UniProtKB/TrEMBL annotation, chains A, B, C, D:
Pfam families: Thiamine_BP. SUPFAM superfamilies: MTH1187/YkoF-like. It comes from Ambispora gerdemannii. It comes from the Eukaryota. InterPro entries: MTH1187/YkoF-like, Thiamine_BP, UPF0045_domain. PANTHER family: UPF0045 PROTEIN ECM15. NCBIfam families: MTH1187 family thiamine-binding protein. This is 6632_t:CDS:1. Gene3D superfamilies: 3.30.70.930. Belongs to the UPF0045 family. Residues 12-95 form the Thiamine-binding protein domain.
Length: 97, 97, 97, 97
């Protein structure tokens, strides 16, 4: 089986910025944390985003759901930044710096 | 059908940074452009990354394949940055600023 | 003289996201382009941001002024993403991929 | 005095990626943490970067020094990502989410 169809573990950091709503974003952060909890992926909130790790496709699907949920809550426009790290030389995790 | 399972159009910008190889990255850029061409998604290279648009899941899958391909070429570690915009108030595309 | 006080050339890409205002951001983009023109730095708008190059401190000062200007226009909160590339092995510019 | 010359407080997150060296980056992270300590700015390391806060120009100068230091250590190429938040509606800090 080609690696192109295998799972790809990643450690990511992302930040979802709702645009076109008020400047207080805490209620949206609460919603995205709920979705991450449901996704069952290891994640950890910090001052400017959320660290998350797991299979690439599952991580991106969880962040997609965060976007969809905020649109459902009435956010007309969202800008999401994602940093993703993958490596083949050793195991990587949120805990490993 | 819930929106959580529907397609989510996005306009994204991403940059794949190979780590642990030499400072010349052009051959890797060529490889990622091939994968984007195969994916059939509208995309456009600029000085610091690539604009791309399409369904969220297809865009993230194309970027995942870029990562897998570079690992196959011997890159031990990759850092990818992705900016993704989604909006429900109007159509969005690479051409619309 | 230590390199710590010398000029550091960089090629950057940045995106200024106004938060707490409406979803239409084009008038803010126009303002930031004016500031970049006044700064006299080479820059080029693309679908998800602006490429800019020059001395690190001048580039960051120009982006700072963009933030200050948007706050003056009533934007209560701003999220700015900046990707900066520096290199010592060869000349770098927006034109060099 | 115009706001354009006043201090602008920001809460930022940044990640410095050395290119063209080996995949182990921990020694470079140690160096950047030293520079941040010397800069006297509040900062906090997480799995995918460093949170930092202070006056915009001082924050960007500290990150510039990180880049210069890594080049001095022989890194030929660096890619730095910076997310910066500024706001005028309330005080912001690394501790305030």
């Amino acid at each position: 089986m080609s690696r192109l169809t295998k799972k790809l573990h990643c450690v990511a950091d992302f930040c979802v910025i709702p645009i076109g709503v008020g400047p207080s974003l805490s209620k949206y952060i609460v919603e995205t944390q709920k979705i991450l909890n449901e996704a069952g992926l290891t994640h950890k909130l910090h001052a400017k985003g959320t660290n998350i790790e797991g299979d690439w496709s599952e991580v991106m699907e969880a962040i997609r759901k965060c976007n969809v949920r905020l649109h459902e809550l009435g956010v007309p426009r969202i800008n999401t930044t994602i940093h993703v790290g993958t490596r083949t030389d050793k195991e990587d995790s949120i805990e490993a710096m």
